[in-house]
């Protein structure tokens, strides 16, 4: 039984990794589509995030069934209960990515092709990477990587503050179309929320390994 | 946390076989302590020692202390009958005496000199109620205890243990031969009994240990590896051997 159970726990890690990869792809896609303009990239990103709904349900069902059949304790219990928490964070990340895609669709329909600030592109890559690494830390039971993700949160927060200042200044000096700058600030805020969820996931990964809640 | 029963550096040998190795464990009052560990690790030996049921086995040697209410039970002045009256034992296989249900329960009190019918009637009813079997047997107290089902027999044995009004109840795999319904009845009973008694159980069923016990002690090869609150043991065990055992990674 132990062998079967171990294989299923491994499988659970794969399922979460696949969902995190999808989230990261959606984030990358939506940010790169911003500067390209057009609707294609944003639509593809929305499709990716809606495919995460099914992944969420599958993972939840898998967890429920393992709880019922294996009646896990100790580290096994943590592995499954944290999966249930993390899948919710992943789902929220998908929602935020979809929100960004919606904004970028609106921009595209206005025929806008905004110049994406370098910092926003960095934030986006950073956030996507944090999501992937947080889940990898869980799947590999790797506390060090999880801690690194937790510490990256400050970097993203700083980027957000800086970006907000830059964009507010642009609005003040009327260097930019006000509506567009506000949209970019909102997008940055969503990315910052994504990073927060990645940090939640990393904290769950730490709990899974150590049994200590941060 | 008041330990009504505790062992200090308890060692036991069956001949050359060192079956208990320096076991120091406290069993606090009105709590359920569960002893867990693989077959042959010494759980039954430990439990029996608490009731002095193996110090007369040839070749057995015991060192260290078992302290019941501040009294080392191996002190020469301790009377074993007195001890067993306060520390009762329920075994894995129900072992009712081949006599009526009533006489099974009245047996202990009678040996302690209680003769009056009224008093015995009261004790029998109270004990059977305490063991949650009164309603099932009240109309057939004169019938043989052996006519009952396994689960009922086990509760008769619990009632028999309760009849002498012990402080501590020791149960060695008391539900391992029972179906889920009888098991659940006895587990409810344990939860109820701990208000009045202090209980020590041996179980191979990890779910049972998490359901009924307040504290848990994990034994391996005669050694007490880890003890503590059940929630802690089953969520974040300190010792890797404990974790391996409770998650079924052993061997
Ligand atoms: N009466 C006895 N004479 C000699 N050796 C014994 C006796 N009873 C137990 N032992 C030995 O002592 C060790 C511990 O046995 P014990 O019955 O206490 O284990 P246990 O943990 O209760 O196992 P189980 O889960 O199978 O009931 C074993 O090596 C066993 O062979
Ligand atoms: Mg035994």
Task: Describe the overall structure.
The complex is a heterodimer of chains A (214) and B (251). Helix content of chain A is 87%, strand content 0%. Chain A is mainly alpha-helical. The two termini of chain A are 33 Å apart. Chain A has helices spanning 2-36, 40-70, 74-109, 118-139, 143-172, 178-210. By secondary structure, chain B is of the alpha/beta class. Chain B has a single domain (3-246), classed as Rossmann fold, CATH 3.40.50.300. Chain B is 37% helix and 27% strand. Chain B has 10 helices and 10 strands. In chain B, the strands form 2 sheets. Chain B has a 6-stranded mixed β-sheet with strand order 6-7-8-3-9-10, with helices on both faces. In chain B, strands 2-1-4-5 form a 4-stranded antiparallel β-sheet, with helices on one face. The two termini of chain B are 35 Å apart. Classes of the chains: A mainly alpha (214), B alpha/beta (251). Chain A binds chain B through residues 1-2, 5, 71-78, 211-212, and chain B through 206-207, 210, 234-237, 243, 246-249. Residues 14, 17, 19, 37, 39-45, 57 of chain B line the site of adenosine-5'-triphosphate.
Structure keywords:
heterodimer, A: about 210 residues, mainly alpha, 6 helices, elongated, B: about 250 residues, alpha/beta, Rossmann fold, 6-stranded mixed β-sheet, 4-stranded antiparallel β-sheet, about 25% strand, binds adenosine-5'-triphosphate, binds magnesium ion
């Amino acid at each position: 039984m132990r062998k079967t159970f171990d294989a299923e726990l491994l499988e659970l890690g794969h399922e979460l990794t696949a969902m995190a990869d999808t989230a990261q792809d959606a984030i990358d896609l939506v940010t790169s589509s911003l500067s390209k303009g057009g609707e294609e990239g944003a639509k593809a990103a929305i499709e990716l995030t809606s495919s995460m709904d099914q992944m969420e349900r599958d993972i939840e069902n898998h967890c429920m069934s393992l709880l019922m059949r294996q009646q896990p304790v100790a580290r096994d219990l943590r592995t499954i209960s944290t999966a249930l928490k993390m899948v919710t964070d992943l789902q929220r990340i998908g929602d935020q990515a979809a929100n960004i895609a919606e904004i970028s669709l609106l921009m595209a329909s206005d025929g806008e092709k905004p110049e994406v600030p370098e910092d926003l592109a960095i934030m986006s890559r950073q956030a996507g990477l944090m999501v992937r690494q947080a889940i990898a830390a869980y799947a590999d039971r790797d506390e060090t990587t999880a801690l690194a993700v937790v510490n990256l949160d400050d970097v993203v927060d700083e980027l957000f503050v800086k970006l907000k200042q830059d964009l507010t200044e642009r609005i003040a000096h009327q260097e930019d179309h006000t509506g567009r700058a506000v949209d970019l600030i909102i997008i940055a805020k969503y990315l910052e929320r994504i990073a927060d969820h990645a940090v939640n996931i990393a904290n769950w990964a730490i709990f899974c390994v150590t049994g200590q809640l941060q | 946390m008041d330990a009504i029963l505790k062992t200090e550096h308890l060692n036991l040998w069956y001949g050359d076989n060192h079956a208990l190795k320096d076991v120091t464990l406290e069993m606090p009052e009105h709590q359920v302590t569960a002893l867990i560990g693989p077959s042959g690790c010494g759980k039954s030996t430990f439990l029996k020692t608490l009731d002095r049921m193996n110090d007369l086995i040839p070749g057995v040697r015991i060192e260290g202390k078992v302290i019941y209410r501040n009294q080392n039970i191996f002190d020469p002045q301790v009377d074993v009958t007195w001890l067993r009256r306060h520390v009762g034992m329920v075994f894995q296989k129900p072992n009712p005496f081949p006599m009526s249900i009533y006489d099974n329960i009245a047996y202990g009190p009678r040996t302690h000199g209680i003769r009056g019918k009224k008093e015995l009637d009261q004790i029998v009813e109270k004990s059977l109620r305490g063991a949650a079997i009164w309603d099932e047997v009240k109309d057939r107290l004169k019938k043989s205890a052996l006519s009952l089902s396994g689960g009922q027999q086990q509760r008769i044995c619990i009632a028999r243990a309760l009849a002498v009004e012990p402080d501590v109840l020791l149960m060695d795999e008391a539900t391992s031969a029972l179906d889920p319904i009888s098991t659940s009845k006895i587990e409810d009973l344990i939860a109820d009994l701990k208000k009045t008694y202090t209980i020590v159980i041996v179980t191979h069923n990890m779910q049972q240990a998490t359901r009924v016990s307040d504290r848990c002690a994990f034994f391996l090869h005669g050694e007490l590896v880890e003890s503590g609150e059940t929630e802690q043991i089953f969520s974040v065990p300190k010792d890797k051997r404990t974790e391996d055992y409770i998650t079924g990674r052993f061997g």
